[in-house]
Write a structure and sequence with these properties.
The protein has helices spanning 85-88, 100-104, 106-109, 129-135; strands spanning 49-50, 53-60, 63-73, 76-83, 89-90, 95-99, 111-118, 123-128, 137-140, 145-150, 155-157. By secondary structure, it is mainly β. It has a domain at 49-157. A hairpin with a 2-residue loop joins strand 1 and strand 2 (53-60). 19% of the residues are buried.
Length: 167
C-alpha cells in the first residue's frame, strides 16, 4: 500500500471545505483547519438532553426558555439548576426562585427534590418539592411568575457533604 502524499490545506477537496479568506489572503476562524469539522444534525422531535438531564422548557413573556433539568437522583427524580447568588438571589426575602409553571408541574412529573447549585459559592441547596410548594411565595417581576423560598428553608451543603431533606 502506497503512502498518500500530503495535500496542501489550501487545495479544494469538495463543497464547503475551502478555508475562508480575508482580503489579505490569510485564513480566518476555524475554517483554516486542514480537515473539515464533522457536524451531526440533532434529531428532531426528541427531548433535549443537557449534561444534567432532560431540559425542562417553559413559556415566559420573553419566549420559551430552559428552566432547568430533571435528572435521576438515586431512585427519585430531582430538578437541577445552576444559579448565581449575585444575580438570582432575591435580596428582599433572601430567597432563591424557581419558575412557578415549572415548580407546579413537578408532582405530575414525579420530581421529589429541588436542587440548586450556587456557582458563586459552590454551595448546593436542596429542598423537597412538597415543602417548597407549601412554604414558597409567588412573585412576578415581568419575567413570568416565580416561586421564592428563603435560604433558611433550604438544606445547604458544600461539595462532598452529606445532607438530609427537610419536610
Amino acid at each position: 500500500m502506497q503512502p498518500q502524499p500530503k495535500r496542501n490545506p489550501q487545495e479544494r477537496r469538495g463543497p464547503g471545505t475551502r478555508p475562508a479568506q480575508l482580503a489579505s489572503g490569510t485564513p480566518r476562524g476555524r475554517a483554516h483547519r486542514a480537515q473539515p469539522r464533522t457536524v451531526y444534525p440533532r434529531p428532531r422531535g426528541k427531548s433535549r438532553r443537557g449534561p444534567a438531564g432532560v431540559a425542562l422548557r417553559i413559556d415566559t413573556p420573553q419566549g420559551p426558555k430552559t428552566s432547568g433539568f430533571i435528572r435521576p437522583e438515586g431512585s427519585a427524580l430531582e430538578y437541577f439548576r445552576a444559579v448565581r447568588s449575585s444575580a438570582h438571589l432575591l435580596y428582599a426575602l433572601d430567597a432563591f426562585g424557581v419558575d412557578a409553571p415549572a415548580s407546579e408541574s413537578f408532582p405530575d412529573k414525579g420530581v421529589e427534590c429541588i436542587h440548586l447549585l450556587d456557582t458563586d459559592t459552590e454551595t448546593h441547596y436542596r429542598v423537597s418539592v412538597d415543602y417548597f410548594l407549601r412554604h414558597s411565595v409567588v412573585r412576578d417581576f415581568g419575567h413570568g411568575r416565580q416561586r421564592f423560598l428563603a435560604r433558611r428553608h433550604w438544606s445547604q451543603a458544600l461539595p462532598g457533604q452529606l445532607q438530609l431533606l427537610p419536610g
